[in-house]
Structures are given as structure tokens and as C-alpha cells.
């Protein structure tokens, strides 16, 4: 894919950039450029370009504003100690966006074009990739939306794919600590045949009222049960779950109605290399409650792109609580092993990292 580049004439100056990268936060500062590619049935994917970062001009009848035909990805670029810049499993993000596109009736952006687009923006804005100390990185947000101006209900005939980037600080500023969860029994994330396995904004929008409820109960995150029986654990508002048993084996809820996380898939491989068998199966809230009570479940953790891996503590619900597990040892070992690979402090024996600069 040929990408035309127009350099920004109003780049953030070096002194201000140093200030931003010292304390970037998350999703509040954006790089100097953005990447755009368009699709129509006649021209296929075309007009790939990198331009100065700035607002979009959308007609009020733009289809995405009415029918939420939209997908996105979340990934990071990491600066290693020698100054080189790397992506973590970008092909996996590209494949997941292809699956999301299928579910949202979008055209599929080829994997090589997705990866090439992300790499091109990282190269253009490489000065925005912070040093890796304190787990800082450059967060990348590829996204696709129905940009056709049309109010009819059908798959869009004009689609726009974009990539923007934002420097990100460590998810846990005061160090990693167990998160407290609220078990929602009123709201569900997705049902059989729904869009739970697609990374689309509607899935996150549907989680917000339950997350709001969790915060009101003094919790950090919300955990959802399945829509059919209200019995099986699915995922958090934005993270997948793992349960570590005393005998060393690990269980994670099976996918189908939940998002297939890139971090989730990586942990399955990493845990196996560390000698822990990982099962993907249905896991009931009763098994969680009984496993903690009996001591059979010794650790619970969640994972996602932003937090990487975080231990799970107490679960609160209208019916009482599930106590915090007794340990976080394996959780923290897995977390450290994964972070060390991402930041180049350990050998990448899995072939997950891809050098950009």
C-alpha cells in the first residue's frame, strides 16, 4: 500500500514533548500526525495518507453516527534500551480487526496493509515513543468507521480506516495492586450470536452503566455473566479473566461471546511455557465462589493491553462477596515475563515482537 505523507507544520516543539513524555497519562495527548485510508466498492482501499493530526469534518448524515458501524484496535509501540522501536504481535491485531470487520459487514483490510499502516505512523511520529522506563509506551488506536453520507440501513459504501497515536504512562502509577470487582446481575455484555467477540464501540458502550454501578459500590471494575443463564463468568468491562488452581492448572472463560484478547492469547502460550496447563472452558460464578472458599483457587487475575496483567482481589455483589485469593505469585511472574519481552529485557522466544525503527 503506497502511503503519501504530508509533514505537519505545527509539530509539538521538543521542550513541550519532553514535558508530555515525562507524565503522559493515557489518551490525553496525541502525536503530530494521523493516517487515513478510504474504501469504496469501485476503488477498493485507496488514498492512503499521513497528514497532520486534526479534527474530522463529518456530515450530520454520516452513517456511523446513526448505526454505529465501527471497529477499532488497541496496541502499543515500545522503545527498547538501545533506542529501537518495536510492536507487539501487530499481525494478531490485524487478524482480529478482520474478524470484527466480518461481523460489522465491513470490507476487510489485508493484514499486510494494516501492519504497514501502523508501522508508517510509528515511523512518522517516532519521537513520541517514550523511553521504556516505568512501562511507558506509545498507544496506537487503529479504527474503521462507516463514512458514507446516507441514512438507509445497509452496509456502508464508503468506509474510512484511520490510525492515531497517544503516549501512555504506566497503568498502575503506585505499583500493581489487586482490583476489586462488582458482579453485575442486571446487565450483560453480549449474547450468543451477538457482537461480543467483535472489537466494536457498542460493546464498550453497553458496559458503561454497569461500570458506573461498580464505581458507586466502591469497586474498580465490573464482571459480567453470560446472557443466557446468568451463571457463567465472561469478562470484565475491558479485560479477560484467569483462575489459577492449587495444582497449578489455569482456567480462562471460553470465547465466542467475549473478546479474544491479544494479551489473553499470549498468556495462554506463556503460561504453558512456564509449565502451567491452561483450560478454555465455561466457568461458573459458583465455581469461583466455592474455589476461593475451599482454597482450591489460589489466584485470580485479569489482562488487557492497557494494564497488561493485574491481580483480582475481592468480588462484591448484592448477595455478598467472594474473598480475595491468597496469592499473586504466578500472576506477577506472568506479568513480569510478558512486560520483559515487550520492552526487550528478555529474549522473545515466541517471535512476538516486530521491529519498526
Describe the structure.
With 357 residues, the protein is an alpha+beta fold. It folds into two domains: 4-168, Aminotransferase class 4, branched-chain amino acid transferase, N-terminal domain (D-amino Acid Aminotransferase, Chain A, domain 1, 2-Layer Sandwich), CATH 3.30.470; 179-342, D-amino Acid Aminotransferase, subunit A, domain 2 (D-amino Acid Aminotransferase, Chain A, domain 2, Alpha-Beta Barrel). Helices cover 25% and strands 29% of the residues. The protein has nine helices and 18 strands. Strands 1, 2, 3, 4, 5, 6, 7, 8 and 18 form a nine-stranded mixed sheet that branches. Strands 9, 10, 11, 12, 13, 14, 15, 16 and 17 form a nine-stranded mixed sheet that branches. Helix 7 (262-273) links the parallel strand 13 (250-253) and strand 14 (278-281). Helix 3 (90-103) crosses helix 4. The longest helix is centred in the N-terminal third of the chain and has 14 residues, at 90-103. The two termini are 19 Å apart.
Question: Strand tally, please?
Answer: 18
What is the tally of helical segments? 9
- The appropriate CATH architecture of the largest domain is 2-Layer Sandwich
Q: pLDDT average, as an integer? A: 96
Question: What count of structural domains?
Answer: 2
Under CATH at level 1, the class of the largest domain stands as Alpha Beta
Structural class: alpha+beta
Gross morphology is globular
Sequence stretches where pLDDT stays below 50 over 5 or more residues: none
Report the helical percentage.
25-40%
Catalytic activity: L-isoleucine + 2-oxoglutarate = (S)-3-methyl-2-oxopentanoate + L-glutamate; L-leucine + 2-oxoglutarate = 4-methyl-2-oxopentanoate + L-glutamate; L-valine + 2-oxoglutarate = 3-methyl-2-oxobutanoate + L-glutamate
Family: Belongs to the class-IV pyridoxal-phosphate-dependent aminotransferase family.
GO biological process, one term: L-valine biosynthetic process
InterPro entries: Aminotrans_IV, Aminotrans_IV_CS, Aminotransferase-like, B_amino_transII, BCAT-like_C, BCAT-like_N, BCAT_family
Amino acid at each position: 500500500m503506497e502511503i503519501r505523507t504530508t509533514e505537519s507544520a505545527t509539530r509539538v516543539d521538543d521542550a513541550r514533548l519532553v514535558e508530555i513524555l515525562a507524565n503522559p497519562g493515557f489518551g490525553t495527548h496525541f502525536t503530530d500526525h494521523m493516517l487515513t485510508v478510504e474504501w469504496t466498492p469501485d476503488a477498493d482501499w485507496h488514498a492512503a495518507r499521513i497528514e497532520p493530526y486534526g479534527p474530522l469534518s463529518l456530515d450530520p448524515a454520516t452513517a456511523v453516527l446513526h448505526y454505529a458501524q465501527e471497529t477499532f484496535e488497541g496496541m502499543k509501540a515500545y522503545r527498547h534500551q538501545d533506542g529501537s522501536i518495536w510492536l507487539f504481535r501487530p499481525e494478531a491485531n490485524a487478524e482480529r480487526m478482520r474478524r470484527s470487520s466480518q461481523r460489522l459487514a465491513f470490507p476487510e483490510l489485508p493484514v499486510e496493509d494494516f501492519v504497514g499502516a501502523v508501522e508508517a505512523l510509528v515511523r512518522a511520529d517516532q519521537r513520541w515513543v517514550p523511553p521504556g522506563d516505568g512501562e511507558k509506551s506509545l498507544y496506537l488506536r487503529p479504527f474503521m468507521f462507516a463514512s458514507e453520507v446516507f441514512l438507509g440501513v445497509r452496509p456502508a459504501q464508503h468506509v474510512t480506516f484511520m490510525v492515531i497515536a497517544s503516549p501512555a504512562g504506566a497503568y498502575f502509577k503506585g505499583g500493581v495492586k489487586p482490583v476489586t470487582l462488582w458482579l453485575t446481575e442486571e446487565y450483560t455484555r453480549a449474547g450468543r450470536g451477538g457482537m461480543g467477540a467483535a472489537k466494536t464501540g457498542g460493546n464498550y458502550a453497553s458496559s458503561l452503566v454497569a461500570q458506573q454501578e461498580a464505581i458507586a459500590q466502591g469497586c474498580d471494575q465490573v464482571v459480567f455473566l453470560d446472557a443466557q443463564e446468568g451463571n457463567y463468568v465472561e469478562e470484565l468491562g475491558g479485560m479477560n479473566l484467569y483462575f489459577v488452581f492449587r495444582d497449578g492448572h489455569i482456567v480462562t472463560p471460553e470465547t465466542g461471546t467475549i473478546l479474544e484478547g491479544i494479551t489473553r492469547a499470549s498468556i495462554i502460550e506463556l503460561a504453558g511455557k512456564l509449565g502451567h496447563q491452561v483450560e478454555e472452558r465455561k466457568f461458573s460464578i459458583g465455581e469461583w465462589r466455592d474455589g476461593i472458599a475451599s482454597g482450591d483457587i489460589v489466584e485470580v487475575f485479569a489482562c488487557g493491553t492497557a494494564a497488561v496483567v493485574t491481580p483480582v482481589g475481592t468480588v462484591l455483589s448484592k448477595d455478598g462477596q467472594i474473598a480475595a485469593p491468597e496469592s499473586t505469585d504466578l500472576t506477577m511472574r506472568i506479568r513480569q515475563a510478558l512486560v520483559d519481552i515487550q520492552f526487550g529485557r528478555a529474549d522473545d522466544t515466541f517471535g512476538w515482537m516486530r521491529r519498526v525503527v
